Amino acid sequence: MIDFSIEPEFKKKLDWMNSFVREECEMVDLLFPRASDMYDVKNSNARKIVRPLQQQVKDQELWACHLGPNLGGPGYGQVKLALMNEILGRSSWAPTIFGTQAPDTGNAEILAMFGTEEQKEKYLKPLMDGDIVSCFSMTEPQAGADPLEFECKAWQEGNEWVIDGYKWFSSNARYAEFLIVMAVTNPDNAPHERMSMFLVDAKTPGIEIIRNTKIMSDSPENEIDDGIHAFMKYNQVRVPLDAMLGEQGGAFKVAQARLGGGRIHHCMRTVGLLQRALDMMVERAVSRQTKGKLLSQHQFVQGMIADTAVDIEQFRLLILKAAWIIDNEPHGAARTHIGMCKIQLGKVFYEVAKRAVHLHGSLGVSLETPLAKMWAGAPTLAVADGPTEVHQVQVAKALLKNATPAPGFFPTDHNLTRLEQAKKKFAHLLED
Ligand SMILES: Cc1cc2nc3c(=O)[nH]c(=O)nc-3n(C[C@H](O)[C@H](O)[C@H](O)COP(=O)(O)OP(=O)(O)OC[C@H]3O[C@@H](n4cnc5c(N)ncnc54)[C@H](O)[C@@H]3O)c2cc1C
Question: Ligand 1 pocket: which of 169, 180, 254, 259 to mutate (most atoms <8 Å of CB)?
């Protein structure tokens, strides 16, 4: 059954979110545009404004809705969460104000599933309350998309694990209260059983941040190493034995626990952002005149607007289908669809950002609209959470896995062969 309706009660919540994000969160984006502002919980200027907004979200029972009922969340399925994330996508600050910002969401899921009671009390509770932030430290300077190339290692000495090696793009490490670190513990195991996951308190001696890399969508002011993505070194960092999350060699299983819903949410937030670009295109088209008529009356512009609307709607439906599969089919059934969403994210984001910037001409390439940041966000999101090609390979492999070769010289769907079959099948009726 295909049902596109939204329950009236839930629709009311979405409507509230929609106005709140436009009227409040988008204002905070303008006042505090730096990525670092979002994660620096000690930035009292921003927090003075953000804390009461977070309280309003909590009062509406819309705080950290990605959490299941066991963690105090409403247990919304992925379809509902997707619709909510679409609204949050309009604003950079909205995920922080709604308690759903990455990587804290995924890290909370890991802690909830694999942490001890003591760890949950110390880190999970303040994380879920929005009082602290965390870091997921996996990518390395020499390898990202292929974790089998990772080298940062950990070994046991008495009652401790010792972690040693480099990490790259560990977002928010400079503000994090704890880091979840992936390290090689069993180099001789099968490829996907070589690494383990560790919970590391940020104050542990030996954690060194070499620099904080900025990305192209960050504000251009200040130094290029004043960003939030840490290049770091774990210099024989010692943690207790219970810092290992999950089983020894089980890092991939732990990582998988955090990536599924998160990717869908990223994609749906992108839909919200792109819808904002389309809204701007439409307004521009009916506001500006050239060659004696409005832009909206020129067919090239009409084509751009129609293509953009179709691209966004197709992308949206693909994500909702992936979300529906997660909600309704066995665990893992949505893997291919999640990969498809991630592939499509790169393409649609580029295309829509390009058209929106272009339609705004010189204003579009200036820093005076949200479009420049959107433009710079396209390549960033195509790489983060696994580059497009990795997902293409995964989707193609899934499709090819059960394929069988054609029986003879020609494909099964060969017109002449099938015509012979059709003639045989209906011979009794064709005789006359
Ligand atoms: C904004 C942002 C935030 C991030 N935050 C974090 C974080 O908090 N923690 C963390 O650990 N990491 C983080 N990352 C890192 C991210 O996970 C990696 O960038 C990603 O996995 C790709 O790794 P890489 O950058 O090393 O690219 P590479 O692995 O070097 O890939 C570069 C290119 O090589 C090609 N390629 C790679 N693999 C294949 C393949 N199998 N087939 C064909 N072509 C291929 C693709 O064109 C790809 O784009 C973040 C990245 C970004 C952009």
Answer: 169
Question: What is the three-class DSSP state of 294?
Answer: strand
- State whether 230 and 164 are in the same domain: yes
State the DSSP string of 215-261: -TTS-SSS-TTBSSEEEEEEEEEEEEGGGEESSTT-HHHHHHHHHHH
**Residue carrying the six token digits 């696994």:** 386
Residue-range definition of the domain harbouring residue 218: 133-249
Which of 135, 168, 390 to mutate for ligand 1's pocket (most ligand atoms within 8 Å of CB)? 390
145 is a domain residue: yes
User: CB of 296 within 8 A of CB of 304?
Assistant: no
Query: Do 309 and 201 share a structural domain?
Result: no
Q: What is the pLDDT of residues 376-428, one digit of tens each?
A: 999 999 999 899 999 999 999 999 999 999 999 999 999 999 999 999 999 99
Tell me what percent of the chain is helix, strand and coil, each rounded to the nearest 5.
55, 15, 30
Residue 430 Cβ inside 6 Å of ligand 1? The answer reads no
CA 189 to the chain's CA centroid:
30
The pTM of the full predicted model, rounded to 2 decimals, is 0.93
- Three-state DSSP state, 48: helix
If you take atom 45 of ligand 1, which residue's CA is the nearest one?
389
CB of 376 closer than 6 angstroms to any ligand 1 atom? no
Encode pLDDT of 190-209 as tens digits: 999 999 999 999 999 999 99
